[in-house]
Amino acid sequence: MQKIALFGPPATGKTTLARRLSEQLGHPHTNLDDILFTPDGPLPLEEFRRQAGEVTRHNRWIVEGNFSKLADVVWHRADVLVWLDFPLPVIVYRVVRRSLRQLAGHDDSPQAKRLTWSTAFFSRRSLLRTAVRKYRNNRPRYARQVAETAGLGVEVVRLRSPREVERWKNEGVKARVESHFEEAARHTTGA
To answer: For a FRET experiment, which of 17, 21, 41, 122 has its CA 20 to 30 Å from that of 28?
Structure first.
């Protein structure tokens, strides 16, 4: 697992999982939102694709973000594509919980600093409404794109609950890390 792409709806824990994998594996972690959103506004699509492509030209990386428009420069270059595909009630609960935490001042992220009650819950493009709309509209397209990516030889891991994420992280990833270190030791000792 040298190149890992993670995606899923808002509040599924993409960033948390990507950071933990980065720590476990020692791979650099990139959040695509950090590339797209600049102080001057979002990058044009071609520049966004170019910069994301630069990140994935390296031998080791973990990239997270919900940008299927970048499938050819991120997903298709990955060894493993992780789809956090939680049920809608879990996503709604987590969006509400995270938004309330941010509105209460318990988060100092740039997103939290821009958040208002309206943008979290009440406007037509609120985080909550957007999460529900994207969940309903994007899942069929994601399934097609994930199948296409798997057809290119990329391992797809579809995790459908926070419990599955923990199990995969604690069992699957841990086994791969241990195997990697054992293989490295064999090459070093010549065994």
So the answer is: 41
